[in-house]
Amino acid sequence: MDASLSLANNEIQGEDVKIKLEEDRAGLPTYVVEKFPHIQHYKAFKLPTSLDVKHLLKCQLAVVIYDSDQKCRNCTGLQLPGVIDEVFSYNGPLGAFFSRDAVSLYLWAPTAQAIHAYIYRGPTGEDPIEIVQLEEDNGVWKTKGPKSWEGCYYVYEVNVYHPSTLRVEKCYANDPYARGLSSDGRRTFLINLDSDELKPDGWNDLANKKPVLHSFSDISIYEMHVRDFSANDSSVQPDLRGGYLAFTLLDSAGVLHLKKLSSAGITHVHLLPTFQFAGVDDQKENWRSVGPKGHDTFPW
Description:
By secondary structure, this protein is of the alpha+beta class. The chain is 13% helix and 27% strand. The strands form 6 sheets. Strands 9, 10, 13, 14 and 15 form a 5-stranded antiparallel β-sheet that branches. A 4-stranded antiparallel β-sheet has the order 7-8-12-11, with no helix packed on it. Strand 5 and strand 6 (72-76) form a beta hairpin. It is elongated and about 85 Å long.
């Protein structure tokens, strides 16, 4: 459990438990061979039926071959994706969910040994206002907090055995199911996308105003980069160029061009990148211009 396995004097040391494997002469089950055909001719071994496999998957594991003198002839680690999918498959909620009087967090992390959520009032700096230990239910870690969490930020502290370092590591990470992030992806934003305070005017009726799509074959897509849309558009005020707000200027050259494309038959616009872009500084005051004076350049 603490990743203390070692190999010395032709034997494995530091284990919590040693489990004898029995050859399964029936071979690998058909569904396993169908999913992993490259191992179809391998020997199959089975664990005792009384064993708690779910607990084992949180530990450092080694498979060892012994000779008749109980000397270690060879050993290897385990590849876990197949058994994790089979034992911990899940189709429930993940991420942050908001109710009238609570905020709930759900994180699928079946190999983790412990997880805490650090709750922060703001996107940077300061100490957490709360550190919450999540409880596990069949590979899904969860907790329920007060409604006051809405609008706050959080990161996860995950204790997990890491096969690349052969140690139990304490990792800090954003929620992989995040619906919002602070700048530069430092913290996950507890944003309720159903909040009326966040919706632009007319948002709830927007779906009803879209043209009817009779067939997917009628789709004609125009791919467009958020930055390129307005970076050099003199009809857009400088502080909005290269960002999302440039799309709100209904009389800009770019928007007028989109209207012409729509009249010509374009039905959909694909915007990119519309997610947190790792390696790019989100703080505009840190950007540097290498172009002529008065002409902004952008880091992506």
